[in-house]
Design goal:
The chain has 501 residues and is α/β, with parallel strands linked by helices. The protein is 29% helix and 17% strand.
């Protein structure tokens, strides 16, 4: 072997080793997903931590909490003369009467009033833990474009103005200390949020264009300048706060955002690899072409599925019927209603992301505290039928049908004692009845001896929700459970069922 051959072999060995090390380093850093669906599909799956979690808290909080009127879209409708809410409230007129001319007092002028002096991230996190939530998702930036974090790309942020503290960072630290997963949401893709007039409003002043953006025509697509802004601000959130979950609103589904879809998904999933943790990306998928269903978690706003969905999914809804942010005349739901909703969602392979709207001073309204506490009390007793479970052969039985799709919750009726929802875990079946029957007798047709769903013989029935004595029998037509005494808890009642084989 000549010296030339030996030199060549040494070169190849050294080069090959260096190449392998670089390749290994890239793999360790998580550079595994390319910006196309095939590459992402080859490796990604929805993590079990999300499928097990079932219940999360959403937080809509920003300068729109200062006026506390209308809803969280106050910054949009305060500039729109002709918009009247269903309850007759006209945001434009209210603003003019309360705060004066729109040119002198615009949305920007609420920001110095948004001081959040009573905000205590640790106190919030303890409440979320008490509620039984396993993930928390604060809004990083809403349609108003005010960043609730230490942004590197906009001066209009909570560190520079208003609270003058990193709200998102404080919540991330406090929530994670409680052992709860931390997510963030972005609503910035709605670049047509504000209504412009040439001289009538303060948003005609070019000094504030970085908050209000530029006038655009209706139905126009976002400019490349806006897409670049969106990308920088979104990746800034990802890089700084390393969220376990990333949530996007309807805007990302609008025409013109197609170029960033696979790009942002691969960017975030690669970051998850670098951080060595499993992450979740959520989107509304209104146009059904934005993101493949198997690569993200579909989020349904104020609505649900009407049957078991083959992929994990999520409902986002709020403790109130009127608004996502705090308003002083909110119409609050009951914890009973929301617990039933959680049970129904989980039986269909979903999770519930329940929103609260804190006040401008940083306190959580007592109505919200009460609701979260009562949900937590129910989950302490009955949580084994919710957490870590999977759908059964059917989601349930009963006369009350749920409407499917976005913004369908207002059409749903209250559940009855005939409505039952099923979940399963480790070979055990859980049957949750959504109301207490007047005669104390629970009947479940799906678990009869002649059931077309599962006709196995039952070996045991245990009442999870209380210490009441029970008698049960499995006949050709029903599983019948007779309970002694009064209802031991509110909302819904869980039975743990095991089969002989």
């Amino acid at each position: 072997m000549t010296l030339k051959h030996i030199s060549l072999i040494i070169f190849l060995l050294v080069f090959g080793r260096a190449f392998s090390q670089d390749e290994a380093t890239n793999s360790e850093k998580g550079h595994t997903y390319e910006a196309n669906w095939e590459s992402i599909r080859s490796r990604y799956k929805i993590p079990d931590w999300f499928r097990d979690a079932k219940f999360g808290i959403f937080i809509h909080w920003g300068p729109y909490a200062v006026p506390a009127k209308g809803d969280e879209k106050y910054p949009k409708y305060m500039y729109y003369k002709d918009h009247i809410k269903k309850d007759g409230f006209n945001t434009y007129e209210y603003h003019q009467k309360t705060y004066g001319n729109h040119k002198e007092f615009g949305y920007k002028d609420f920001i110095p009033m948004f001081k959040a002096k009573k905000f205590k991230a640790e106190k919030w996190a303890r409440l979320f833990k008490k509620s039984g939530a396993r993930y928390v998702v604060p809004v990083a930036e809403h349609h108003d474009a005010f960043a609730m974090y230490n942004s590197n790309y906009t001066r209009w942020n909570a560190v520079n103005m208003g609270p003058k503290k990193d709200i998102l960072g404080a919540l991330a630290e406090a929530v994670r200390k409680q052992g709860i997963k931390f997510g963030t949401s972005s609503h910035l893709a709605n670049w047509r949020n504000y209504y412009w007039k040439k001289t009538e409003y303060d948003n005609s002043n070019t000094e504030y264009v970085d908050l209000y953006w530029k006038p655009v025509k209706n139905k126009s697509k976002p400019s490349q300048e806006f897409l670049d802004t969106w990308w920088n601000r979104t990746t800034d959130i990802i890089d700084q706060y390393q969220p376990d979950l990333l949530w996007f609103d309807f805007g990302l589904d609008k025409p013109g955002f197609e170029s960033v879809h696979s790009k942002i998904l691969s960017y975030y999933y690669n970051k998850g690899e670098i951080w060595n943790k499993e992450v979740v990306f959520q989107n509304k998928n209104m146009r059904n072409v934005s993101f493949p269903e198997d690569l993200i978690v579909l989020d349904i706003e104020r609505g649900r599925m009407d049957n078991i969905f083959k992929y994990p999914w999520q409902t986002d809804t709020s403790v109130g019927y009127k608004s996502w942010g705090y308003i002083d005349n909110e119409d609050y739901k009951t914890s009973n209603y929301l617990i039933d909703e959680l049970i129904d969602i989980v039986s269909k392979n979903g999770c519930l992301l329940l929103n609260i709207g804190p006040k401008a001073d940083g306190t959580i309204p007592q109505e919200s505290v009460k609701i979260l506490t009562e949900i937590g009390d129910w989950l302490k007793i009955n949580g084994e039928a919710i957490y870590d479970t999977r759908p059964w052969l059917v989601y349930g039985e009963g006369p009350t049908q749920v409407n499917k799709g976005h913004h369908s919750e207002k059409k749903n009726k209250v559940f009855t004692s005939q409505d039952v929802r099923f979940t399963q875990k480790k070979g055990v079946l859980y049957a949750t009845v959504l109301d207490w029957p007047k005669d104390n007798v629970f009947t479940i047709k799906t678990l009869s001896k002649l059931s077309k769903v599962d006709d196995r013989s039952i070996s045991s029935v245990e009442f999870i929700s209380g210490k009441n004595k029970i008698n049960w029998s499995q006949t050709n037509h029903y599983l019948t459970i007779n309970i002694k005494g009064k209802s031991p808890c509110k909302a819904a009642y869980v039975f743990k069922i095991e089969f002989k084989n």
